[in-house]
Every structure is written in C-alpha cells, then in structure tokens.
Amino acid sequence: MEDSYQKLRIYVSAFISGASMMILEVMGTRMIEPFLGNSIFTWIGVLSVMMVSLSLGYFLGGRIADRKPHGTYVGLILILSGISVALIPLFSHPALKFASKFGMVYGPIPASFLLLSIPSIFLAMVSPYLVKLNTKRLNFLGESSGNIYTVSTLGSILGTLLAGFVIIPNFGIHATLFSLSLILLVNGALFLGKVGLILVVLGLVVNFAIPQPANFEPIFDEVTLYETTSASQYMRVADLPNRGVRLLLVGHGAHNEMPLNSIDPLLGYPAYQKLVYTLLPNIKKALFIGLGGGVMPSDMRRKTNADITVAETDPSIVPIAKEFFNFFEDEKLKVEIADGRLFLSNSNETYDYIVVDAYLGPLTSFHTSTVEFLDELKKHLSPGGLVFVNIISSIEGEKAGLFKSIYKTYKSKFKNIYVFSVLYPTNFTKSENVVLFATDSNYGDKETFVSLFNASSDGEAELATHYYNGPVDTSSYPLLTDDFAPVEFISIGGYNYS
To answer: Which of 271, 372, 406, 483 is most exposed, with the fewest beta carbons within 10 Å of its own?
Structure first.
C-alpha cells in the first residue's frame, strides 16, 4: 500500500512540475509584454532562459538526488518553487523596469532571467529526483526515467493548453501565480507530513502578503479605466485628462486614441480617413483589418452609407471598443472574428476601401505585410479602390527600414503610394505613425493632391499638406515575402541590407 502511494505521489509530482513549468513560461511572456512587447524577441528571451534553467535544474537535481535520495528533499524543492512563484509579483515591476533599459530586442533576456529562472530551476530539479526515488533496481532505470519524463511531458502539454485556452483568457497574472504557488505548496506537503502543512500555511501567508503586480508601465497623469489580458494580447484603456484623450493600449504601445471633449472622434492617424471621403465619395463596401477602438469604422458608418466589415482576431477587444470608444454594430457595420488574411482568402467579396490597421507599434504582423498578402488584398479590391495602411516608422534615416520595406512591397503591387507623416511633417527621421494610401488611381503630384481638398471644411486641406513627396530609396531593403519577412529586425534597425 505504501509503495502504491509512493508511486502515485511521484507521478502526480512529475505531472504538476511539468504543467507548472509551461504555465510559468507562457505567463512570463504576458508579464513582459506591457514593457517590451510580445514579439519574436520576447519568446526568444523566455525560451532561452527557460532552457538554461532546465539544464541547470536537471544537473543540480541529479547531483543532490544521488547524495540525498529522500522524498523529504523533493517536498522541500516543491515548497521552495511555490514560494519563489509567489514572490514574482513582489519584484516584477522593478525587474521589468530594469530590463526595459536593454530595449525590445535584448530586454526580454534579463527580464526572463529575473522573473523566471529561480522557480524554473527548482521545478527542473524535481524530475531527476523523482527518477531516483522511483528506481528500485538499476536494470529498470531506463523504464523508470522514461515513465517520469513521459508523465512530466504530458503535464507540460496540459499546462500549455490550459494557459492558452483557459488561464490567460479568464484569469489575471496575480490569480494565476497565486494558484500555481498554492498547488506547488500542497504538492510539496505530500512529501513532508505535518511539517509540510506548516510550510503550506507559511506559503499562503507569503501569497497574501505580496501585492498585485504592476502589469504595465503607467503614463504620467494616466487614469486607468480598464485592464485585461486576452488570449492573444495585453490591453488597457486609460484617460489622459491633461491631453484630453482616451487611449487604447495594446501590448506596450498606444493603438487608438479618442478625444474626450470633441464630437470629432478622429484623432492622430485615423484622421487621415477624412481624405478618403473626398477621394472615394461613393464607397459601397469597406473592410477594416483590425478593430482597435473602432473609431475609424464607426466614423465611416456615420458619414457614409457603405456596408462595413471589420475583421478582428481578438474577440475580447470588441466589448472594449463598444464600452469605451463608442463603437457600435448594426445592419451596415459588422465585426467578424477572424484573422484578416484568412478572412480575405475565404471571402468572395470586393471592397472599394480596405484598411490595414493590424500593426502594433513596431511589432508589425509579418503575414499581413508580404507580397502574398497583397496579392490576396488586391484580388478583393475594386478597380480604383484604395488601401489605407498605418505603420510605426520613420520615413528617412536609420530607423526608416520598416517604412521602406513596406513601401517597396506595396509599390510592387500598386501603381501609386501616397505617404503621410502624421506627427512630424517637417522631421522625417523621427519614428511616428506613417499612413500610406495604396491605389492604382493617380491623384497627381503634391500640389495637385492638396488642391483636391481646398474646398473642404473639416481640416482635410491641412492633413493633405502632410503628403510626403520626397524620394524613397528602397534598394537596400527587402521585398517582404512569406518566405523572407524579418520585420522585427527591420523595425528596430537591427538588419543591415546595404
């Protein structure tokens, strides 16, 4: 009976440690995202630190298990892993602040090390210890280790699925870390008897004493209205009373803003849609790839009679847009929960106007930037139609790589690209919102283009003067394809094509 209990305890612990490792890994990316984004660099940082921690944990666990092959030590390791998980929120904000000094590319490595390495090392120590406890005879060592690592891997699979489909969409970081810590503490108590119960109580005290983590970098004078982490991204809504705007922040950057005391909802780059109403006065069908706060499709619904469809990958952002940014749906304005590229590939519709607003700051979605995507886009664009593209880049200088690569890619498919500098129309080396109009229609040179809006009364003429008519040398930058689109490296100027 004792032997059966021992085996059950060992396999349960292998399963829990495997699941905990993967939950911690996925949650690590969520803690890092508001400070450093959720890019390939974030995953590289988290995965590399986790692999190093696993290696060190396996090494230490194996060494200690040979010297002290007792279940008590497994219990202590699990208790220590539970307490170390509970302590993460205590230093998450200063650790992430420190890591952000290394930038988006290298910052995730120190961030992952500071947040995840200690609990990951403890969790990795468990498996070799369990192999030692489970092996009664040397000639069964292979079978014993295979069983332990199989059960641990099954736990890792379940932990990954739970993190993606249950935990992140429904629970916050603090609740997840609290629950994970508690499970590890109870698991450790199974090996420690009455002493274990005392340590569980101590771990609970630690959990309740730790404050909720600061999951984001607050903006000066910000009034946070709402914060959540969906299955795919971190989001918050904040008012900036001094600036008179409401922001939707996705990941680590602002995605949409709306004035608080104005009947005109178009501010920043969305305001350039006002030019479209003059260029395309008879829009019958429009498609928006990416909802954000929904200010652009809502404004189009108010000012035109077009049938408007929004393709948005994250269903969690729709109620946020409705509650905080006056977005609405009706018979003429519908949201489809789908990836924009996949939506187009499954659609038979054509549109007079398509907006590609799926780029989160410099973290450009590569699959909506490539030649193959533009082939699909153009197939669904009416003759004379226009594509509105919003990116974050400079237009000139060392940080212009993203703009030039995307410009080059769109220019390969459209006869004319009209570029607008949103924030710095006299300093094109600063990183900012850049709006591109891609079309086969010809609206002439800058003087001719601006003259189209002289009779307008809603500020369009001023917006039109932001038309950038300088030369765009794209010879040193790649044409983006599904095969080769290193947009993250281009965005941060880390790739030299010259």
So the answer is: 483
The pLDDT of residue 214: 47
User: pLDDT per residue over 69-103, tens digit each?
Assistant: 888 899 999 999 998 998 888 888 888 889 988 88
Check if the beta carbon of residue 87 is closer than 8 Å to that of residue 210.
Answer: yes
Contact 458, 265 (CB under 8 A): no
**How many domains does the chain contain in total?**
2
218, part of any domain: no
With contact defined as beta carbons under 8 Å apart, do 116 and 46 qualify? yes
Q: String of b and e for 32-51 (b: at least 16 CB within 10 Å)?
A: bbbbbbbbbbbbbbbeebbe
Beta bridge partners of 363: 360
Amino acid at 194: K
Task: Check if the beta carbon of residue 216 is closer than 8 Å to that of residue 33.
Answer: no
Residues 28 and 149 in one domain: yes
- Rounded to whole angstroms, the Cα distance separating 76 from 129 reads 12
Mean pLDDT value of segment 392-409: 90
Q: Model confidence over 204-225: pLDDT tens digits?
A: 777 677 665 544 555 556 788 8
Residue 381 CB-half CA count within 13 A: 23
Q: Which of 112, 17, 122 is nearest to 80 (CA)?
A: 122
What 3-state DSSP class applies to 43?
helix
Which tokens sit at 269? 């780059």
The Cα 433–Cα 391 span in angstroms is 6
Would residue 225 count as lying in a domain?
no
- Sort strands 245-250 and 416-421 into parallel, antiparallel or unpaired: unpaired
229 is a domain residue: no
- Pair (200, 239) in one structural domain: no
From CA 278, how far away is CA 270, in angstroms rounded? 15
Which region among 115-129, 149-163, 256-270 has the lowest average model confidence (pLDDT)? 256-270
Which domain does 392 fall in, by range? 234-491
What CATH code is carried by the domain that includes residue 356?
3.40.50.150
d(CA 198, CA 194): 7
309-349 pLDDT tens trace: 999 988 989 999 999 998 999 999 999 999 999 999 999 99
**Predicted pLDDT of residue 143:** 76
b/e burial code for range 237-249 (CB count within 10 A of at least 16 → b): bbbbeeeebbbbb
Does the residue 288 lie in any domain? yes
